[in-house]
Input
Amino acid sequence: MPRYRKKICAGDVFEIEEYYSPRAIGKKYERGRNELLTTKEQQARNLKIARKKLSRIVNANFKEGDLFLTLTHKVWVDRKKAKKLLANFFERLRRLRKKLGIPELKYIAITEGNEKRAHHHVLINRIDLTPAQLRKLWGLGKIDIKPLEAGGDKTAFAQYVTKESVQKNARRWSPSRNLVQPE
Output
């Protein structure tokens, strides 16, 4: 079996992923049937892949000094309404950043709260706004603001924010469109 190496550069983190494949590069193969994995095994595999992808995107785009926000709601709202309120928050934040001449907003947002009150974990690039300005901008409940710590790999962050299971065929996180993809 051929052994392959995939080199991934995501910000300050450089990974070498080594894997085996019975297929040779350059040859065409018919796709086989997916018959070996059970649904629980497949869900665990998908979660592992999603966490790896998220940690690489975070490593490539966010660094020390960027902010990790936890936004909560005062009253109970369903997931769909919570996502709409979060989109409104991002729009207000974009307008304020543009007005103050701060560079474009980069973010990754995860909405949680299947059986409990909905809340959002948001990672945004560095801004020159005070916590009071951010609280006023959110205005729908409590906001917890933590600066991102120095250090390389953000795998622990990815595991923390993807701890809650999602609906079938639903996205686990919502990124901004201007994020740099790992090489």
About this structure: Helices lie at 39-61, 79-100, 131-138, 155-161. The mean pLDDT is 81. DSSP finds four helices and seven strands in the chain.
